[in-house]
Amino acid sequence: NRWSPAANIFSVEPLPKSNSFTEAQGIVRLAKEKKWPSVYIIAPPFHQVRCFISAVTVALAEYPELKIYNKVGATLDWNERGIHSQGVLTGRRADFIDSEWDRIEKYMNLVSPEVALEYLENREK
Question: pTM for this structure?
């Protein structure tokens, strides 16, 4: 019975008000329901930090023993135009980096980057 990567890739059903935080709630809750010990969060490079911090925020509140890892998705041309944040942002992908940090700072419901780093330091203990 060989392990099959394709059999271990799951997507979470979109929630009524989809955003990084509600997506994190979905994956953490699915992991808890299925008793998974770990998950990988896959996102484009400019979105990695916010996805990770969102997932850590939910995990610390709902399933603290979950080990969350980042995996960078396919890197697309930074200078190409893209759409982000449910279509609210458009522009070069490189331009999304600043807005990601602004959003992390604005989201009062997310743990601080310091708490996320502490989570990383303790994840493998």
Answer: 0.73
Residues 59, 25: Cα–Cα separation, whole Å: 8
Amino acid (one-letter) located at 116? A
3-state secondary structure of 69: strand
- Dump pLDDT digits (tens) for 79-98: 676 666 665 677 777 777 77
Among 32, 28, 26, residue whose Cα is nearest residue 13: 26
pLDDT digits (tens, 9 = 90+) for 40-73: 988 877 778 888 988 999 999 999 999 999 888 7
Helices (H), 1-125: 20-34, 48-62, 96-106, 113-123
Residue 8: DSSP 8-state: G
23 burial level (CB within 10 Å; 0-12, 13-18, 19+): buried
**Gyration radius of the chain over CA positions:** 15
What is the distance between the alpha carbons of residues 18 and 23, in angstroms, rounded to a whole number? 7
